[in-house]
Design goal:
By secondary structure, the chain is an all-beta fold. The protein is built from no helices and twelve strands. It has one domain (about 1-160). The relative contact order is 0.29.
């Protein structure tokens, strides 16, 4: 069955000289019916017709799976940078082939990593960073070139199953 997850996140105290923006690629934990493993890190990229499952450490290698970014919106205002992504993915019930746990949609411990990019005007170099659900908060995203704080992640990204 087709499921849709909404992922939202926000950075505050955004420093404007680095032109910080959300990249249209993210990683999300999904119970994969293809390799029948729960909690697989799955890469979603805007414009791609399918997602990429990390597979398992033994046996099934990385493989494509039925999933896509159905919507990707960003908001910039003042010292705030927010993102909302809608992920469509196929899900079917199964029992994990390794440990016997039952699958769930979304997985029983949803996890997401969102990617950001920027350009440091001081060094003339580009850089990237990420935020994810299992980081300590507040998390300060800093420029790898000049050590300036680019923004602060105060709240865990939200994951909500819509359908």
């Amino acid at each position: 069955m087709l499921r849709t997850a909404e992922i939202t996140a926000e950075l505050t105290e955004v420093e404007d000289s680095h032109q910080l923006y959300w990249r249209s690629r993210l990683e999300f934990s999904v119970d994969c019916f293809v390799c029948e493993r729960i909690g697989r890190t799955t890469v979603f990229e805007r414009g791609a017709e399918r997602a990429l499952c990390s597979g398992s450490r033994s046996g099934f290698k990385r493989h494509h799976t039925a999933g896509r970014i159905a919507g990707f919106d960003t908001t910039t205002g003042g010292e705030r940078l927010a993102v909302r992504a809608l992920l469509d993915f196929w899900w079917a019930p199964f029992t994990d082939t390794r440990d016997g746990h039952r699958s769930a949609a979304p997985t029983s411990h949803p996890w997401v990593r969102l990617q950001l990019a920027y350009h440091c005007q001081e060094s003339g170099e580009s850089g990237s960073g990420s935020i994810q659900t299992n980081q300590a908060r507040p998390h300060r995203l800093t420029c790898k070139h000049c050590d300036r704080v680019l923004g602060v992640d105060r709240q865990t990204p939200a994951v909500r199953l819509l359908g």
